[in-house]
Specification:
alpha+beta, two-stranded antiparallel ribbon, 4 helices, about 40% helix, elongated, Conjugal transfer protein TrbB, signal
């Protein structure tokens, strides 16, 4: 074939080839738009629950790393021996840190090496931690647990005595709500009466 005729044929077909390329690009863009529209219509998947988040009854979610439980126990307290394993298991399931303090210097199976309250002022009648947590008039007894906001160090009485886990969990959630709403711990209802305590 004559090179001149070949060049003329190529020039004649160029618009057809260009149109085909443009048509393919437009089709690809339309397909991409349709795909994006379908994704926009599809509801977003709920966030995956993590072990460090808790859904409160009012719908708010909180980070469990912002809260902890301080529990006062005794090595020779039958009620601490009953309550501590339940508390430790529940806290472990929810990623809640527990800080055990002993009132008699000993631990138990759940908390074999608890913290010992310390007295920084020798003239003080009681150790600092005991004054901090029980200074509001709550009787010193075991087991007694407090919910603590680790950022503000505000403490709320959680339980005094053995408490079933569903009741404890409900109270824990209500105390977090009270903390989020900036309620004074003194404004909260008193702890339910419980005979399963060892007085100090």
């Amino acid at each position: 074939m004559n090179p001149l005729k070949l060049a003329a044929l190529a020039l004649a077909l160029l618009p057809v080839l260009a149109c085909a390329g443009v048509r393919e690009e437009i089709a690809a863009m339309e397909a991409a738009k349709a795909s994006q529209a379908a994704e926009a219509v599809r509801p977003a998947a709920p966030p995956e629950p993590t072990g460090d988040r808790m859904m409160l009854p009012d719908g708010r979610q909180v980070n469990m790393k912002d809260y902890a439980v301080v529990v006062f126990m005794q090595a020779h307290c039958e009620y601490s021996a009953k309550f501590d394993p339940m508390l430790k298991s529940w806290a472990g399931q929810h990623g809640i840190r527990v800080y055990p303090y002993t009132l008699d210097g000993g631990g138990d199976v759940s908390f074999p090496t608890p913290l010992v309250p310390r007295k920084t002022d020798p003239r003080a009648p009681l150790a600092d931690e005991i004054m901090t947590f029980f200074g509001n008039g709550l009787p010193i007894a075991t087991p007694t647990a407090f919910m603590v906001n680790v950022n503000t160090l505000k403490a709320y009485p959680l339980t005094q005595g053995v408490m079933d886990i569903p009741v404890l969990e409900s109270r824990y959630a209500s105390l977090i709500q009270a903390d989020l709403d900036h309620l004074d711990p003194q404004q909260l209802p008193a702890l339910p009466a419980n005979s399963q305590v060892t007085p100090q």
